[in-house]
UniProtKB/TrEMBL annotation:
Residues 51-402 form the NADH:flavin oxidoreductase/NADH oxidase N-terminal domain. The keyword Heme does not apply. This is NADH:flavin oxidoreductase/NADH oxidase N-terminal domain-containing protein. Its cofactor is FMN. One of its GO terms (molecular function) is FMN binding. CDD domains: OYE_YqiM_FMN (cd02932).
Length: 429
């Protein structure tokens, strides 16, 4: 007697291979991860869903399955030797793969420098050459195999470059003896809009001022990095890092920008560098994100960048076609106030800008958002459109599932993980 599996069971149980990756990976047959299992096309059912678990259309080519994203967080694990400087390793594939397999709406990969001497530390990622971009492709491919959208933050650390990796618990510039470049002068050294050091304790070197004639080279470097991110790595979007005292941030702030040319002085001049980068990076086929320190948290410095400046800038971002403004705070210098750590301490900035721009610009907020109800309330109140989380994802890569449970929503899980939580029926007829 021979045993033959009925045709309808063959169709039901045949394991399909995910086409996005070059190894065997079972395809998630029930759709992208992190999406509510309720019928999304039914408006009545969709209206009952917590907003946190509703899809969001960011761009004509990009829709995310829920409103939860992984915030960019440096891991200081890139290769730092020879021709491989700035290259991603297997660690990055494992690290981001762990997030992808749990179904966030989007992931923003940590800051990747657009030039070698723009890294925060020698162990930062780079995307100034094609080899680096190619090594990021497996991260993107795996995310796509799970139905997750993924972008990368492109950056230049400016006067905060060539620092020791933060896990060493020191904020300090380092020399070539430790693979840094703080001791170098000329084109391979540390650059900023003005020769104003990050702090007054000689922890960071006084940067060289970028000549006006070379600013377009920096703008082009951002554009080239974005092109690699799209054409080689396959990312869905890029985020321009304009926060935390990095290069763009120091152009924006009068605290660090003492220039007298067309890139310094007036508000319009100080935002020029960022707007030129946006225009260079902007792609018809991909959305553009910008991360900004909404307020530099330096109330005793009348020249510091404040929330009122960010509100004013938001109109320019709309006019230059930015889709998402990702709001953080602080980082301009060592005298800035320590950040307050109550839950959602930065949502006040998101609300202020969202109230101003309305639907013309999507707003992402981040900063100690720990509970699903709190996150959902921020969205339901129209204070923001996207919730980003950093440390909560490091502590709990299954944060999306935890928040879904908290709000009573069932979401699509990876088939490798779903069956213990939702066992199939024993009757297979």
């Amino acid at each position: 007697m021979t045993f033959e599996t009925p045709e309808h069971l063959i169709r039901r149980f045949k394991v399909l291979d995910a086409p996005e990756v070059d190894f065997f990976l079972p395809k998630n047959k029930n759709g992208p991860l992190g999406k509510s299992t309720l019928e999304q096309d039914n408006d009545e059912i969709k209206a009952k869903l917590p907003k946190l678990f509703t899809p969001l259309k960011i761009h004509k080519n990009l829709e995310i399955n829920n409103r939860i994203g992984v915030s960019p967080m440096c891991t200081y694990s890139a290769d730092n030797k020879g021709s491989k400087k700035g290259e991603a390793t297997k660690f990055h594939e494992i690290h981001y793969g762990g997030f992808s397999s749990r179904g966030p709406g989007l992931i923003i990969v940590e800051a990747a420098s657009v030039v070698p001497n723009g890294r925060t530390s020698p162990e930062d990622l780079g995307i100034w050459n094609d080899d680096q971009a190619l090594l990021l492709k497996p991260i993107v491919d795996f995310a796509h195999s799970q139905g997750v959208k993924i972008g990368i933050q492109i950056a230049h650390a400016g006067r905060k470059s060539s620092g020791v990796a933060i896990p060493e618990h020191l904020q300090k510039g380092i020399s070539s003896a430790l693979e840094g470049w703080s001791d170098k002068k000329g084109p391979d050294g540390v650059f900023a809009p003005s020769p104003v050091a990050y702090d007054e304790n000689n922890s960071y070197v006084e940067p060289q001022e970028i000549p006006t004639s070379e600013i377009k080279d920096y703008v082009k470097a951002f554009g080239d990095a974005a092109k690699r991110a799209y054409d080689i790595s396959g990312f869905d979007f890029v985020e321009i890092h304009g926060a935390h005292g990095y290069l763009i941030s120091t152009f924006l702030s009068s605290t660090s920008n003492k220039r007298s040319d067309e890139y310094g002085g007036s508000f319009e001049n100080r935002i020029r560098f960022l707007l030129e980068i946006i225009d260079e990076v902007k792609s018809e086929n991909h959305p553009t994100f910008v991360r900004l320190s909404a307020d530099e948290l330096a109330p005793n410095d009348p020249e510091s960048w404040k929330i009122e400046d960010s509100i004013k800038l938001s109109d320019h971002l709309v006019n230059h076609g930015v889709e998402v403004l990702d709001l953080s705070s602080g980082g301009i210098n060592s005298k800035a106030e320590r950040r307050k750590t109550n839950q959602g301490f930065q949502t006040q900035y998101a609300k202020a800008i969202k109230d101003h721009v309305g639907d013309k610009l999507l707003i992402a907020t981040v900063g100690k958002i720990l509970e699903a109800k709190f996150a959902n309330d921020v969205l339901e109140n129209d204070d923001a459109d996207i919730i980003l989380a950093g440390k909560p994802f490091l502590k709990n890569p299954g944060l999306v599932s935890s928040w879904a449970d908290e709000l009573g929503v069932r979401i699509q899980l990876a088939r490798q993980y779903e069956w213990p939580f939702h066992p199939p029926p024993w009757n297979l007829d």
